[in-house]
Write a structure and sequence with these properties.
Layout (H helix, E strand, L loop, with lengths): L1 E2 L2 E2 L2 H9 L7 H12 L8 H13 L19 H14 L5 E4 L6 H9 L5 E6 L2 H17 L7 E6 L7 H7 L5 E5 L6 H6 L8 H4 L5 H5 L6 H13 L4 E8 H14 L3 E9 L1 H5 L5 E8 L6 E6 L5 E8 L2 E3 L2 H7 L11 E2 L6 H4 E5 L2 E4 L4 E2 L6 E5 L8 E2 L4 E4 L11 H5 L1 H9 L1 H5 L25 E6 L8 E3 L8 E2 L3 E6 L2 H11 L2 H10 L10 H4 L4 H6 L3 H7 L5 H21 L1
The structure holds S-adenosylmethionine (SAM).
S-adenosylmethionine binds next to helix 5 and strand 4.
């Protein structure tokens, strides 16, 4: 039967039907429920008891589910809740107090009850009344069918996690071995903003807590992260554990901010779950388990939740925040400052006009139209998806490079290159439509990400869109350099041998290990300028030797190797004199 928009099991129904008369007096029925299940104030008013009484009479079962997007509502299924509870109790047991700060339909509470007979107190908070009922009925049902089991004091509270006084609760439970368990809302403040939701912490409340200014200052913060921080702040001094299902990005932030927060947590574990299978959503999420009231620790071990395969240890190591402590340990020697400036490629925001392909000797633009251009400004163009190979000197796309540096006047095109001018000016409206303010008050047909460096003959390039850390050596085609688009990063060389050595160094085991040790596999655009600028070429060069390089680079002479060594030394001393 459905009542209070929740399903009531047959055994619970039977219980109420047997005690139908007591529903006329909610104190009486509450006492009875407390006796059989430990739940305090099952009904908070006579009206609620009467509502159930009426429902029992009419046996109504029609219910409609409202849109619960603003509540980040992804209920944990029974099986996963039980597996999580089992694992948590395996790591530590003897819990006396269970807190589920956003308990939903109560699967974590029930799964925890099933794991332990030592519980003294349980508190669940939930904003959505039908779920409060679902939790209460679920617990009642469990104790009705497991009569002999010890019954803790249980409060399932209809309330807002942002307003609930967890400090007070922490004080009154400080001597109880505590498990904070759950799965907080999967929603960010900006998603809530976009649907005009008020399900956010009040600004005045967060300021009281350390660490919150940092997350709320991030602009887009995750509600799950916010609730995790409240829990850690309030319960770090309790003996016990904290176990939350949260997004991977939240765990990364918690460990990264641990340096500043210094919560009394340690032996942290991140156990990756399959969110598609468990919640039917494509979000990288995990169980984050950490032990409370311990010497603060700044790393976290990562496993697969299902087979417990060890994946990595990430966190703070040698004063750096790294994805793999083991790999960083072996490669930190090349963590420094790149003597070459990594650049991103050309940006034009006008691909329909500025990008084209060659078909049967003709250029066909993004509108599918054949175009006529002088060759002078036409260059081959590589995108991230073109950087799959170790070396290349071919391209699918071409582009028009209208400037040699940012802001250069483009009037010369009209005078020198009539076909190119005719093409660009007849499509000027496409350029005028470009939204980015960078194009405002700039010469017609302006591009960005352009400078002397763009015209270097050889380039060592990497995609900024993909996870691969492999670098591609790009050589000119028909002696004309090939350009890269703004999703790629590169360093340029005019000499092939210098480019080949740089290419060899960045693809060496040592540099690859280093990059993999600092790149978080599921964060977006993790290969970026900041990451690349950390490659210390001098150290990478010293860790390689000419004999080995000779096997990989054809016609490499010792002079080339020494020239590269000199070049990076000179660049270092140039840098020194700059500052
Ligand atoms: C991701 S669901 C998980 C529910 C439950 N912890 C579980 O694991 O099945 C998040 C829950 O938080 C509740 N919630 C959202 N905002 C809340 C708030 N401000 N206070 C209390 N609960 C809230 C939602 O209604 C929903 O039940």
């Amino acid at each position: 039967m459905i009542c209070f928009e929740t399903h009531i099991t047959d055994s619970t129904l039977e219980f109420f039907q047997k005690n139908l008369k007591t529903l006329f007096d909610f104190y009486q029925i509450n006492n009875l429920v407390k006796k059989v299940s430990g739940i305090n104030t099952f009904f908070t008013s006579q009206e609620e008891a009467t509502e159930l009484l009426e429902k029992l009479k009419e046996n109504n079962s029609i219910v409609s589910e409202p849109n619960r997007r603003e509540y980040g509502d992804f209920q944990t299924n029974e099986n996963l809740s039980e597996q999580v509870a089992k694992y948590v109790f395996l790591k530590q047991n003897g819990f006396e107090f269970i807190l589920e700060p956003t308990c939903g339909k109560g699967n974590f509470i029930l799964a925890s009850i099933k794991q332990s007979n030592s519980l003294k107190k349980i508190v669940g908070v939930e904003i959505y009344q039908p779920y409060v009922w679902a939790t209460k009925f679920k617990i009642l049902d469990y104790y009705l069918t497991n009569k002999e089991i010890n019954k803790p004091e249980i409060d399932i509270i209809h309330g807002n996690a942002f307003e609930f006084d967890y400090n007070q609760l922490a004080k009154s439970t400080s001597d109880l071995k505590t498990l904070v368990i759950g799965n907080p809302p999967w929603v960010t403040n900006s998603e809530l903003g976009s649907i005009d939701s008020k399900n956010l912490p009040q600004k005045s409340n967060f300021k009281k807590h350390s660490g919150f200014e940092a997350i709320t200052g991030k602009g887009n913060f995750d509600i799950g992260e916010y609730i995790s921080l409240i829990m850690l702040k309030c319960f770090e001094n309790h003996n016990g554990a904290f176990a939350f299902l949260i997004k991977n990005s939240v765990v990364k932030n918690l460990i990264q901010d641990q340096k500043r927060n210094c919560f009394k947590i340690s032996q942290s574990e991140k156990l990756n779950i399959d969110s598609k299978k468990e919640f039917n959503v494509s979000v990288n999420a995990c169980l984050f388990l950490t032990q409370l009231n311990t010497e603060p620790d700044f790393t976290c071990k990562e496993f697969d939740f299902y087979n417990k395969e060890y994946l990595t240890t990430f966190g703070w190591y040698k004063d750096k925040f790294v994805y793999s402590v083991e790999d960083y340990d072996k490669s930190s020697i090349v963590d420094g400052k790149s003597i070459f400036t990594w650049r991103s490629g050309v940006k034009h925001d006008c691909s329909k006009i500025m990008e084209f392909e060659r078909e049967n000797g003709h250029y066909i633009n993004g509108l599918g139209k054949e175009i006529n251009l002088e060759d002078k400004l036409v260059y081959g163009l590589l995108k991230s998806s073109d950087l799959k190979y170790d070396k290349t000197n071919t391209f699918r796309k071409l582009t028009i490079i209208t400037q040699k540096k940012i802001g250069q006047p483009t009037k010369y095109i009209k005078e020198d290159l009539p076909l190119t001018y005719e093409y660009l000016s007849s499509h000027k409206e496409f350029f005028d439509k470009r939204k980015s303010s960078i194009y405002k008050d700039k010469p017609d047909f302006s591009i960005f990400g352009i400078g002397n460096y763009s015209f270097a003959k050889y380039k060592v390039a990497i995609s900024g869109l993909y996870k691969s850390t492999h670098f591609t050596l790009v050589s000119p085609k028909d002696s004309k350099t090939i350009m890269l688009d703004d999703t790629c990063y590169f360093i340029g060389f005019d000499d092939l041998k210098m480019a080949q050595i740089a290419h060899l160094l960045v693809n060496s085991d040592l540099v690859q290990k280093f990059l993999k040790s600092i790149i978080f596999s599921d964060s977006k655009r993790s290969i970026n300028k900041d990451t690349l600028m950390r490659i210390d070429f001098e150290k990478a060069f010293q860790s390689n030797d000419f004999e080995k390089a000779k096997d990989k680079i054809s016609d490499l002479e010792i002079e080339h190797w020494e020239e590269f060594g000199e070049m990076i030394k000179e660049s270092i001393s140039e840098q020194m004199t700059l500052f």
